[in-house]
Every structure is written in C-alpha cells, then in structure tokens.
Amino acid sequence: MVEVSVGDGPVLASLSPSAPTSGPYDYITLRASFAVVDGAHDVRVRLRGPLRLARVGFSG
Predict the structure, then answer these.
(1) Which domain of life is it from (predicted)?
(2) Cβ-Cβ contacts under 8 Å for 41 (sequence gap 6 or more)
(3) Does residue 59 lie in a domain region?
(4) Are the C-beta atoms of residues 55 and 19 closer than 8 Å to each other?
(5) Number of neighbouring beta carbons within 10 Å of residue 20
(6) Do residues 27 and 21 lie in contact, with contact meaning Cβ atoms separated by under 8 Å?
(7) pLDDT digit string (tens) for 14-25?
(8) How many folded domains does the chain comprise?
(9) pLDDT band at residue 4 under the 50/70/90 scheme
(10) How far is CA 27 from the centre of its chain?
(11) Per-residue three-class SS string for 10-36
(12) Is residue 60 part of a domain?
C-alpha cells in the first residue's frame, strides 16, 4: 500500500496494486486525485509492504 499525506496531516490518498507483478523490476502505475494544497509543504509517501517506488510525479 502507498499512502500520501502533506506534512503531519491525515492520509490524502491510499493506493494498492490490484495484484503483485511477476518480478521485482516489473512496474505498474498507480494514480490518485486529492485536493490542491496552497503554499509549500512537505509531501510524505509511505510504503507499506513489499513495494518498490520508482517515481513520484504531480500534475495539475
């Protein structure tokens, strides 16, 4: 599971892959929408379980 939060705030998005990949270097894309936060903040991405994170991106 991947959890995204801003600063010490609550989890804004929680994502889980629907099934494991066939190998440790096979990737899938997870996407989530959440409210826009004004100003500069720390973004926390928490991985729970046997996950690897290749990239985090934002668009708006």
Answers:
(1) Bacteria
(2) 6, 7
(3) no
(4) no
(5) 11
(6) yes
(7) 999 888 888 888
(8) 1
(9) very high
(10) 14
(11) CEEEEECCCCCCCCCCCCCCCCCCCCC
(12) no
Domain ranges, residue 7? 1-54
Check: CB of residue 28 under 8 Å from CB of residue 20.
no
Amino acid symbol at 55: R
Tell whether 14 is covered by a domain.
Answer: yes
Asked if residue 24 belongs to a domain, the reply is yes
Strand partners, 11: 5
User: What integer pLDDT is reported at residue 44 of this predicted model?
Assistant: 94
Which amino acid is located at 27 in the chain? Y
Only one residue has tokens 């994170």, namely 53
